[in-house]
Write a structure and sequence with these properties.
It is an enzyme of class 2 (transferase). This is Receptor-like serine/threonine-protein kinase. It is found in: Membrane. Keywords: ATP-binding, Disulfide bond, EGF-like domain, Glycoprotein, Kinase, Membrane, Nucleotide-binding, Receptor, Serine/threonine-protein kinase, Signal, Transferase, Transmembrane, Transmembrane helix. Its main location: membrane. The protein has 795 residues and is of the alpha+beta class. Among the domains are: 26-156, Agglutinin, subunit A (Orthogonal Prism); 157-282, Bulb-type lectin domain (Agglutinin, subunit A, Orthogonal Prism), CATH 2.90.10.10; 290-363, no CATH class; 405-527, Phosphorylase Kinase, domain 1 (2-Layer Sandwich), CATH 3.30.200. The chain contains 17 helices and 43 strands. The strands form 11 sheets. Strands 35-39-40-38-37-36 form a 6-stranded mixed sheet, with helices on both faces. A 5-stranded mixed sheet has the order 1-4-5-6-7, with no helix packed on it. A 5-stranded antiparallel sheet has the order 15-21-22-23-20, with no helix packed on it. The longest helix has 38 residues, at 383-420. The radius of gyration is 31 Å and the shape is globular. 35% of the residues are buried.
C-alpha cells in the first residue's frame, strides 16, 4: 500500500512535465490561451500554423543559449518575417497570453517581479478579442466575435515586408542592430506622402523616386507602400492608382528587407534559394555609417582621414590622432555664395571625391608640419640638437606639471578637511557599519577627485546640485550634493539610503553609492548621457517621435508603479516632473530622486511645496493639509503625460492658432492682437478637457509631429491623463492601473467630468494671472496678486 501511494505521488508530481508540450493549432486560437517555448519545446516553440502551411507562429530563439522572441516564420525558407518583442527578449519560460484585451508577453526578473515585455497596443476598448488567427499571407490578426480584425502584425512591421502587405503613410520599417541583436538599429525605411525614403538619424539618404529602376506614373499623394508578385509600389488612397513603381519579375514568394548595413533589398524565394532582385543604395559610400563615425569612404573602400587613426570598420570608427581633440564638427563652404555654415546634424562617414562641386567640406584637424625636416636639409642643423633641445623643454614642463599636481592635491585635501567640520572623527564611521544593505560608501576626498572639485555641474533641483564625475574604473557617474535637507543623524540618513539603494528596477536610476562624512551628504548615481526629459522634449534638438513618447510615458508609469506597489518599502516620489525623468542614448527611461523626500525634516516637509521646479506638477491636496498618498504622484504623472503629448510645458506661452481663437473658453479667449503669435499663457489641462468633450484629440498633439499620430493614439494618453487629474485622490487610478491601460491590458476608463470641474476654475484664474503678468514686468508683482489657493491649480 505504501509503495502504491508513493508511486501515485511521484506520478502526479511529474504529470505536468510529462504532458508539457502542447499540440500545434491550425490557423485560429480562441482566447484564453497561454504559450511559452517550454510548453511547446517538442515543436521548437511553434504553437500556430497557417491553413496553407506556409507560416508558423512560435516563441523561438535564433542561436543556442540566446534569448527568445515571439515571431512569425516562413516555413520553406525559414525566414523570420516579423518579431513582436524585438526590444525586450524573453526566456524560454516567459509566457505569451491571449485574453479579451489582446496579446501580452509577461516576463519575470530574478526577484520574481513581473513586467510586460510586449503587448498589442491601440486596440478598440469597446471591442473584446475573441481569437488569434494566422492568415495564409503571414499576417497575424486579432478578431472579435464577429471576425472583424482589431489588430494585425502587418500594421506593425519590423524589418521585413512580405507579399500582400501594405504600409500606410507614417509607418516605418526598422533594421536590426546585428544578427545576434534584434533591437532597433541605425537605419529606417519611412513611407511619406510623396515617397519612400531611407533615413539615418532622421536624415534621408535614399528615396525610391530617385531610383533609376523606378518610374513615376502619377502625381497624386502617396497613401500606401505595397509589395506584390509583380514588384514594389507606392499607391494612392484608392489603392489602385500607382504613384511610383519598381517593376520586378513574377514570384510566388517575395520579401523586401532593410538590412542592418543600411541597404534595402527585395528578394524572391525560388527552388529553395533566395534570389536578390533589387538592392539600393548601390554605392556603398551613400550609406551614412558605412565606414562608421568619421571614416572616409572612397570608391567603396574605408580608411581614416589624415591625422585620424583607428579601424573604420569597427564600431568606434576613426578618432583624432591628438587625443586632446574632440571629434570635429562639419563645416561647408559654398563656392557660389562665398559663405560658410556649420552642419547641425550628426556626422557619420565621409565621402572622398575628386570631383568639383558647389560646396567644399572641411574638418577641424591637426596638421603635422614638415618644417623640421626642411630646416635640417637647408641649414645642416645637427639632428642631435633637434632631439636634445625639445627633450629638455619637455622634461622641464613635466617637472612643473608634477609640482603643480602635488600642490593642488594638498590644497584639495586641506579644503576637504575644512569642509568636513571640526566634529568629524573616524569613530563616527562605526555608526554606518551597523546599517545593513548600504551601497558603496565613498570618502569625501574621493568625490572631490572624481568631480575635479565639483567643476562640471549638470543639473540642480529641490534637493541639491548634480555634478558629473569619473570614478577610478573610468565609469561616469552623477554626484548629487544634498544641500536642501536637514542635518540628520548619520544612522538615520544611512537607513534611508539603504532603502533607496536596495530599490532596483529597469526604470529607476541606480544608486551606486553615497557619502556621509562630517556635514557632507552625497549620493552617487549611474550617469544618464541624454540628460532629463525636459531637455529632449522641450529643447531645440530632434523632435521625439510619437512611439518614442509613448515608450517614455510607459516606462515612467512602470517605474512609479514599482515604487508604489512592488518594492519592499512603499515609496512616494513627491516630485514627479520631466526634470526627474532621465534618458540614455536608447531613450530608456529612468526615474531619479525617488525616496529623497524621506530625508526632509518635519519643518522642511511643510515647505516642500515651495521648492523650485515642482509648482507645475503638484496635486491640489498639497495645499489643503490632506495626508499625502501615492495618488499625489499619479496627479503629477498626469501633468507630465500631457506635456509629453503636447511637447511643451502645460503653462508655456504659445501661438494663437485659429482653433484657439474659436474656443473662447481656453485662456479666456481674449485677444489683444491680430498677429499670429503673442506671449500669452494658457492652462493646457483645461484645453485638454475641452477637446476631450469635443472628441478633437489630434489637435492636442505636438504640431512638430506633422500629423504623424492618429486621433485614437492621442485619445488614449489624454484620457489617462484626465483620469489622473480627478480632484478626489480616491478617484484617481493607481499607477499599476495606469500601466495596464497604457499597455491595453485593461480598457481606458472615461474621466469623471464632475471631478474635473476644478480645472475650469484654475483655467480662469490662470488666464487672469497671465494678463497680470503681461502687464507687470516683475514676477513678484504677479505672485502678490494670487493667493495660495489660486497657485495650486496650474502647478
Amino acid at each position: 500500500m505504501g509503495s502504491s501511494s508513493l508511486f501515485l505521488f511521484f506520478s502526479s508530481a511529474l504529470l505536468p512535465y510529462l504532458c508539457l508540450s502542447g499540440p500545434i493549432t491550425i490557423q485560429t486560437i480562441k482566447q484564453p490561451f497561454t504559450a511559452s517555448h517550454f510548453q511547446y519545446i517538442d515543436q521548437s516553440g511553434v504553437f500556430l500554423i497557417s491553413s496553407n502551411g506556409n507560416f508558423t507562429a512560435s516563441i523561438s530563439n535564433f542561436e543556442e543559449n540566446s534569448p527568445y522572441y515571439f515571431c512569425i516564420t516562413h516555413v520553406l525558407s525559414d525566414a523570420i518575417i516579423w518579431i513582436a518583442n524585438r526590444k525586450h527578449p524573453i526566456s524560454d519560460s516567459d509566457k505569451l497570453y491571449l485574453t479579451a484585451n489582446g496579446l501580452a508577453i509577461n516576463t519575470a526578473d530574478s526577484s520574481s517581479n513581473t513586467s510586460v515585455a510586449w503587448s498589442t497596443q491601440g486596440l478598440n476598448s469597446s471591442s473584446q478579442v475573441s481569437a488569434m488567427q494566422l492568415q495564409d499571407s503571414g499576417n497575424l490578426v486579432l478578431l472579435d466575435r464577429n471576425n472583424v480584425s482589431l489588430w494585425g502584425s502587418f500594421d506593425h512591421p519590423t524589418d521585413t515586408i512580405v507579399m500582400g502587405q501594405s504600409l500606410a503613410v507614417g509607418t516605418s520599417v526598422d533594421c536590426y542592430t546585428a544578427d545576434n541583436d534584434r533591437s532597433d538599429g541605425d537605419y529606417r525605411l519611412v513611407v511619406t506622402d510623396g515617397d519612400a525614403v531611407l533615413q539615418w538619424n532622421r536624415m534621408s539618404y535614399w528615396k525610391l523616386s530617385a531610383e533609376p529602376k523606378g518610374s513615376q506614373d502619377s502625381m497624386v499623394p502617396v497613401s500606401f507602400l505595397a509589395l506584390n508578385d509583380t514588384g514594389l509600389f507606392l499607391l494612392g488612397s484608392d489603392r489602385s492608382t500607382v504613384v511610383i513603381k519598381l517593376s520586378l519579375g513574377p514570384a510566388n514568394f517575395r520579401v523586401a528587407k532593410l538590412g542592418f548595413d543600411g541597404k534595402f533589398r527585395v528578394s524572391k524565394f525560388v527552388d529553395k534559394n533566395w534570389v536578390q532582385e533589387f538592392v539600393s543604395p548601390a554605392d556603398d559610400c551613400q550609406i551614412p555609417l558605412i565606414c562608421n563615425k568619421m571614416g572616409l569612404c572612397t570608391s567603396g573602400r574605408c580608411s581614416c582621414p589624415p591625422n585620424f587613426h583607428g579601424d573604420p570598420l569597427s564600431k568606434s570608427g576613426c578618432t583624432p590622432t591628438d587625443a586632446s581633440l574632440a571629434l570635429p564638427s562639419g563645416i561647408f563652404y559654398g563656392n557660389s555664395s562665398a559663405s560658410c555654415y556649420l552642419l547641425e546634424n550628426p556626422l557619420g562617414s565621409i565621402i572622398g571625391s575628386s570631383s568639383s562641386g558647389k560646396r567644399l567640406g572641411y574638418m577641424k584637424t591637426i596638421v603635422v608640419s614638415s618644417r623640421v625636416n626642411k630646416l635640417n636639409e637647408d641649414t645642416g642643423f645637427p639632428i642631435i640638437a633637434l632631439i636634445l633641445l625639445p627633450s629638455s623643454g619637455v622634461l622641464l614642463i613635466i617637472t612643473a606639471v608634477l609640482g603643480f599636481i602635488c600642490w593642488r592635491r594638498n590644497r584639495l585635501y586641506r579644503t576637504a578637511k575644512s569642509k568636513l567640520g571640526r566634529g568629524y572623527s573616524s569613530s563616527s564611521e562605526l555608526e554606518i557599519i551597523s546599517v545593513p544593505g548600504l551601497p558603496v560608501r565613498f570618502n569625501y576626498e574621493d568625490l572631490v577627485s572624481a568631480t575635479e572639485s565639483f567643476s562640471t555641474q549638470i543639473g540642480s533641483g529641490g534637493f541639491g546640485t548634480v555634478y558629473r564625475g569619473t570614478l577610478p574604473d573610468k565609469s561616469v557617474v552623477a554626484v548629487k550634493k544634498i544641500t536642501n535637507v536637514g542635518v540628520q543623524g548619520k544612522k538615520e540618513f544611512c537607513t534611508e539610503i539603504a532603502i533607496i539603494g536596495s530599490t532596483r528596477h529597469v526604470n529607476l536610476v541606480k544608486l551606486k553609492g553615497f557619502c556621509a562624512q562630517g556635514r557632507q551628504r552625497f549620493l552617487v548615481y549611474e550617469y544618464m548621457n541624454r540628460g532629463s526629459l525636459d531637455r529632449t522634449l522641450f529643447g531645440n534638438g530632434p523632435v521625439l517621435e510619437w512611439q518614442e513618447r509613448f515608450e517614455i510615458a510607459l516606462g515612467t508609469a512602470r517605474g512609479l508603479a514599482y515604487l508604489h506597489s512592488y518594492c519592499g518599502h512603499k515609496i512616494i516620489h513627491c516630485d514627479v516632473k520631466p526634470e526627474n525623468i532621465l534618458l540614455n542614448d536608447n531613450l530608456q527611461v529612468k526615474i531619479s530622486d525617488f525616496g529623497l523626500s524621506k530625508l526632509l525634516t518635519p519643518e522642511q516637509s511643510s515647505l516642500f511645496t515651495t521648492m523650485r521646479g515642482t509648482r507645475g506638477y503638484l496635486a491640489p491636496e498639497w495645499l489643503t493639509g490632506v495626508t499625502i498618498s501615492d495618488k499625489a504622484d499619479v496627479y503629477s504623472y498626469g501633468m507630465v503625460l500631457l506635456e509629453i503629448v503636447r511637447g511643451r510645458k502645460n503653462s508655456a506661452a504659445q501661438p494663437r492658432s485659429h482653433s484657439l481663437e474659436n474656443d473662447s473658453s481656453y485662456g479666456n479667449g481674449s485677444s489683444s492682437s491680430s498677429s499670429g503669435w503673442e506671449p500669452r499663457q494658457a492652462y493646457f489641462p483645461l484645453h485638454a478637457l475641452e477637446m476631450h468633450e469635443k472628441k478633437r484629440y489630434s489637435e492636442l498633439a505636438d504640431s512638430r509631429l506633422e500629423g504623424q499620430v492618429t486621433n485614437e493614439e492621442v485619445r488614449k494618453l489624454v484620457k489617462v491623463a484626465l483620469c489622473c487629474f480627478h480632484e478626489d485622490p480616491i478617484l484617481r487610478p493607481t499607477m499599476v492601473t495606469v500601466v495596464s491601460m497604457l499597455e491595453s491590458i485593461n480598457p481606458v476608463t472615461d474621466p469623471r467630468q464632475e471631478s474635473l470641474n476644478f480645472l475650469r476654475f484654475y483655467g480662469r484664474r490662470f488666464s487672469e494671472a497671465s494678463r497680470i503678468e503681461f502687464g507687470f514686468s516683475s514676477s513678484d508683482k504677479l505672485m502678490s496678486c494670487m493667493s495660495a489657493q489660486q497657485l495650486s491649480g496650474p502647478r
